[in-house]
Amino acid sequence: MAKKKEKKAGKRMKKKELVKVLLEFFHTKQDEVLSLKYIFEQLHLTTHPLKMLCMDILSELSMDDYITEVDKHKYKLNNHGVEMTGTFQRKSNGKNSFIPEGGGEPIFVAERNSAHAMNNDKVRIAFYAKRRGREAEGEVIEILERANDTFVGTLEVAKSYAFLVTENRTLANDIFIPKEKLKGGKTGDKAIVKVVEWPDKAKNPIGQVIDILGRAGDNTTEMHAILAEFGLPYVYPAAVEKAADKIPAEISAEEIARREDFRGVTTFTIDPKDAKDFDDALSIRRLDNGHWEVGVHIADVSYYVKPGSIIDKEAEHRGTSVYLVDRVVPMLPERLCNDVCSLRPDEEKLTFSCIFELNDEAEVQKSHIARTVIRSNRRFAYEEAQAVIESGEGDFKDEILTLNDLAQKLRKRRFEHGSINFDRHEVKFDIDENGKPIGVYFKVSKEANKLIEEFMLLANRTVAEFVGKPKDGRKPKAFVYRVHDLPDPDKMSSFAAFITRFGYKIKTEGSKSDLSKGINSLLAKVQGRPEENLVETIAIRAMAKAIYTTVNIGHYGLAFDYYTHFTSPIRRYPDLMVHRLLERYMAGGRSVNVQALEDECEHASDMEQLAANAERASIKYKQVEYMSERLGQEYDGVISGITEWGLYVEINENKCEGLVPIRDLEDDYYEFDEKNYCLMGRRTHRIYRLGDPIRIKVARANLERKQLDFALAEQQ
């Protein structure tokens, strides 16, 4: 061992190398006072030049406040006793970082100082003094809370042990699994593995198989793997389903008597053609005074799901239904979401409703909120309702045409008040019986979709105002709001700079309504243009994310001062929370505890984000699967992202995105210009910019990594 070190610190050792050796040495002896003689001995610095170089470096480290000379020629690592708590972010390339609680600059944590913390673990670090010209550095001294100790991957099984090979970008090492902890897993199985320990000196973490998902490449296996990757449940607990099966569907005469009765009023649902969970229904009738009464009737889930019950706890934990490409992973057991609570036609159903009286200009004359009972006359798919709107013929044509007319007027007024018109095309797949994608299409929002959207927005806004703006002038009670903050000014400036290359301009300063009018004007101009999707995507990235909170700051995107989610309690837990709060406050109940409610809001926002990530991952998987049968084919696309490792290109006709690796741009040496979103050739000065049209060929498709590689169709 000594010989190795001597070699390392031999005659030709450069200053940079010795600095590294000294730093590592101080870190391993961080609580000790080290004499100069001891340092020379331990690092085998035997020659005079090396000793002099070491003394120079120690002097510099001392001046930089990185070490302290506690006595003549006696040194100690100076960590100032500064300890910080925050989140550890692991990178497979070893460039780990620590994000302090409450914000602040990331701090580099070398792998040797990571204590094998996992990605997103809550940790405490010792923060070392920052040296000139070097980034701040820290060392994990305690793991306070594990964020995730389970990983998804593919098993490779040897005779007496196995490894889980993960595609996780945050884990550089495969997970070692002893043979007895395999749970019957075989090579090629997708599995979920829990890391049980990671010994200090071990290169690989040690784990045990929690569940075998199935064979890699099988559709259900891969969809379950995506859910598991994001920590989302992929099976429904039998005990919860059993509890749901015991809930009676029959409604007692006493319960009907307690409610406003809408069973005799024309009522229908309009939903996607493959939907089974009908959350909302609309009723409409002409009143004697010539006005319209429109009822927005929402499934009364809170009647069936009681706080603290086994069903409620599972729903709260899930937070939301998850919509993957080929399936819905429901928040509630199937008996409730598709049967008891679902507003199916010709069945009496309990609802929580907002009842509006509107004039012909769609101006609300008055409204009230009530527990109701309905009987839907018909279930429309969006396409069927759209056909009635376009032809003026069909079932309930008068009611649908009237509702559409009122919705168009509500919509027009909403945009006049500054609501932003994001109308993105959603990518959808035609899937065969084995889950294989056989076609790609875009879901376009037409009048029938917008009809439902407007009345849901009106109901959500009305409920939020009912609680948030009490008529008696008292302080509002604690409530769940859906808020959307103003766009980040820096992101808006970058966005404004980006769109100039397409010849567009946008205001980045001014009132809320000035900003939103500018965005709407831009979105109208890009309609139907090749850059439409790209401009909309980057505009959305400049926006804040909408979240759930008890602190009402309004909803910027909708230009509403008060907004909540009330209309989808079958698939969103916050809507169920809103129903319960409404019931409590309408009965004169006291305000609930704000902090407990805020904690629930935070959990709901987190689960919504996880569900969105899983949904995106499932789309990406299907896009790669779809394109894997089109290797070698050429497509027109647009450059949708630029990084130091290459160009991301989105294909125009199907919105599939892939990477043209920088190593494959063989006509020149290209450098990444982060500020101007471009790659520039050093010799030819050829520039690839974000938003440029480009023709590509499909080169590789890696389903494991959900990754497409493209090549340029020809050196353009």
Q: What class do helices, strands and sheet pairing give?
A: alpha+beta
Taking all residues together, what is the mean pLDDT? 90
Range of helix content: 25-40%
- Rounded to the nearest angstrom, the distance between the terminal CA atoms is 56 Å
- Secondary structure: number of strands: 34
Shape: globular
Please provide a written account of the structure.
The protein has 716 residues and is an alpha+beta fold. Helices cover 31% and strands 28% of the residues. Strand 7 (122-128) and strand 8 form a beta hairpin. The chain is globular.
Helix-strand layout with pairing:
Blueprint: H1 2-8, H2 15-28, E1 34-35, H3 36-42, H4 48-63, E2 67-71, E3 74-77, E4 83-89, E5 96-100, E6 107-109, E7 122-128, E8 137-145, E9 150-157, E10 161-166, E11 175-178, E12 189-197, E13 206-215, H5 219-229, H6 238-245, H7 253-257, E14 260-261, E15 267-271, E16 280-286, E17 292-299, H8 301-304, H9 310-318, E18 322-324, E19 327-329, H10 334-340, E20 348-358, E21 364-375, E22 378-381, H11 382-391, H12 397-416, E23 426-431, E24 437-443, H13 447-468, E25 481-483, H14 489-499, H15 512-526, H16 532-542, E26 547-549, H17 573-586, H18 594-627, E27 634-643, E28 646-651, E29 657-661, E30 670-673, E31 678-681, E32 687-689, E33 693-702, E34 707-712
Parallel strand pairs: 14-21, 15-22
Antiparallel strand pairs: 1-3, 2-3, 4-5, 4-7, 5-6, 7-8, 9-10, 9-12, 10-11, 12-13, 15-16, 16-17, 17-20, 18-19, 20-21, 23-24, 25-26, 27-28, 27-33, 28-29, 30-31, 31-32, 33-34
Helix pairs in contact: 5-18, 12-13, 14-16
